[in-house]
Amino acid sequence: MPPTSLDPTLAQLPVHGRTLGFLLREVYGWLQQRVYDAVAAEGHSGIRQMHSPVLRHLPPEGGRVSDLARKTGLAKQSVAYVVEDLIALGYLRTEPDPEDGRARRLRYTARGHRLLEALVSASREAEAALASVLGKDRLTSLRDMLEEALSEAPQLLQGHAAPPMPRTAHAPTVASGAPKARLR
């Protein structure tokens, strides 16, 4: 793929700046933008890229904030902030955790399940757009290689989805402006 296929500014970067990690992040950013634009067009305009770690790692049956923090590599407080935003937007709800009376369990609402369906559909469309750039066979090969990397090196890849978010001096408000509830 020529450097300008996805982003014309890529051609201007020095060679040492075009590492594999850089290229993967750039393509991921392009795919992610397409997905979130499509999801917004489907009526989910409040969904942002910051919601990705929770939406990618919270299973359809739900889970806990502490488990999401471990899976994403984010601080528990950062995950709780994103979860509160998704609750305020009507995509998640909380309920008592039957296994731990101190904890709350996250569950998708009906709107949240519709969002997941829209995200999967938009992801397939974004991959099809990438296939039009790379070719279907090459995209299939790329996918196969990445799947192999994930299965062959889980100890290197799991739990390192993102570095912890920096702490801020003030507590941000959630989408609804409502006070944040304490989640575990």
In short:
The protein is mainly α and 184 residues long. It is built from 7 helices and 2 strands.
Task: Please explain how this structure is put together.
This protein is mainly alpha-helical and 184 residues long. The protein has a single domain (15-147), classed as Winged helix-like DNA-binding domain superfamily/Winged helix DNA-binding domain (Arc Repressor Mutant, subunit A, Orthogonal Bundle), CATH 1.10.10.10. It is 52% helix and 8% strand. The protein is built from seven helices and two strands. A two-stranded antiparallel sheet has the order 1-2. A hairpin with a 2-residue loop joins β1 (92-97) and β2. α3 crosses α4 (76-88). The longest helix is centred in the middle third of the chain and has 25 residues, at 110-134. The protein is globular and about 55 Å long. The model is unreliable at 162-174 (pLDDT under 50).
Distance between the termini: 45 Å
> Could you name the CATH topology?
Arc Repressor Mutant, subunit A
CATH classification, class level: Mainly Alpha
> Could you say which overall geometry the principal axes of the C-alpha atoms support?
globular
Low-confidence stretches: 162-174
